[in-house]
Amino acid sequence: MLEAGDIITLGSDAWRLRAPLAGSSYGIVWEAESLGSGTPAALKLVNREQMALALPPQRARWSACAAAEIAFLRGLQPWDRRHIVRLLDSGAHEGEPAMALELLDGDLASHLAARRARGDAVGAAQALDWIAQVNQALAKVHQYGWRYLDLKPSNLLLDAPRNALKLADFGTNRPLLDAGAHSYAGTAGWQAPEQCMPEADQAYRTDARSDYFALGALLYYLVTGTVLRWCARCAQAYRELGAPGAARALAGHADPLEADEAALFLAHALGQAPDTARAPLLALLRALLAPRPEQRPRHALEISRLLAPAAAALASVAAPGLKAAA
Can you give the pLDDT at residue 322? Predict the structure, then answer.
C-alpha cells in the first residue's frame, strides 16, 4: 500500500510521493517531487490493489496499456509536446510500467464542474480556442501513427497560466495502419457511433475520424454545458445492456445531432445572431458529428479551415456572453 513519503525510483530519477491525485480502473496518480531537483510531477502507477482482483487477461491488458502510453510519449519530439502532456521519467515499479508526467492544474472535467458551480459558463470563443488546441493534439497523435479513441474532458489537463489544454492518458491508442476491426476501447459517453456499435463479428472498426466525432461532442458540451443526447444514450445502454445489447438499443438513432440540440448550441453560442453568423458554427459542429466517418473531416487541416470562419463569426457578433471568461 503506497503512502505519502514513499520513494519510487524510475529510469533517471527518484520521486517522493506527496499526495494521491486520482485513480482509475487500472491506474493511480500521485503528486510527487524529484529527490534530485525538486521538480513536481504526476506519478502514474499501475493500481496494484485492482490488479490483484483482476483476471490474468485483464492484468496483461492493463500492463500493456501503460507500456503503450510510455512508448508513445517517449517517441514524441520536443516540439510536438505543446498540447500533449510531457513525460519526465519512466521505468518500472514492482514489475509494472510507471511514469512521471508534468504536473498541471487538474483535468478539464473538474475545472468545468467548478466553474459551473459558481455560475461561470464557458464562452463560445473560449470553447473554440480549446477545440483548436485539442485538434492540434489529435493531429500529433495521428501524425505519429495512432488513433486516440478516448477523448473526454477528464483526459484533458489544464495548464492554467497559459489557459491551455494538454491531452493525456494514451493507453487506448491503436495503430492507424491496423485497419481491421478491434475490441472495444474508450468511454461510452464520448464516442462515435462506430465505437459504440460493433459490426456483425462484435468487433469495432474505427479510424482517426472517430476522434473527430469526440471532438464535436466536446465542443457541444463546452458551449451548452450538457452532454449530447446520443452520448448519454450510449453510456446508459452500455451500463444497462453491455456491448451487444447497447448496439441493438442504439441502432435506431441515425443522427447523433438532433435538431433541438443544434438550436440549443447556436442559442448558447450566438444568441439571436443572424443566419450569416450562425452558419459557420453549425457547419463545424455538423461536420464533426456526422453519423458516418467518411462524412467527417479527413484531417486536422480541414477542421482548422472550419474553425477559422466559426471564430470569425463569433468575433463579428457583439452579444452578451460571447467573450470567454479568464
Answer: 41
Cβ–Cβ < 8 Å for 92, 100 = no
Report the C-alpha gap between 323 and 326 in whole angstroms: 9
CA 197, distance to chain mean position in Å, is: 20
pLDDT digits (tens, 9 = 90+) for 158-196: 999 999 999 999 988 888 888 777 777 778 889 888 888
Whole-structure pTM over 0.70, yes or no? Answer: yes
Q: Give me the sign of the Cα torsion angle 24, 29, 30, 31.
A: negative
Other beta carbons within 10 Å of 17: 18
All domains of the chain in start order, with CATH: 7-102 (3.30.200.20), 108-316 (1.10.510.10)
Grid coordinates of 303: 477542421
Q: What share of the chain is helix, strand, coil (3-state, %, to 5)?
A: 50, 20, 35
State the residue for C-alpha cell 479510424: 207
297 burial level (CB within 10 Å; 0-12, 13-18, 19+): buried
Report the distance separating Cα 47 and Cα 42, nearest Å: 15
CA torsion 236-148-298-125 (nearest 10°) is 70
pLDDT tens-place string over residues 275-289 = 778 899 999 999 999
* Start-to-end Cα distance in the chain: 40
Grid coordinates representing 52? 490483484
Q: How far is CA 26 from CA 51, 184, 282, in A?
A: 7, 16, 38
Per-residue pLDDT tens over the stretch 206-240:
899 999 999 999 999 999 999 999 999 888 887 87
Query: What's the Cα-to-Cα distance from 143 to each of 76, 98, 138, rounded to whole Å?
Result: 10, 25, 8
- Nearest C-alpha neighbor of 23 from the set 52, 44, 6: 44
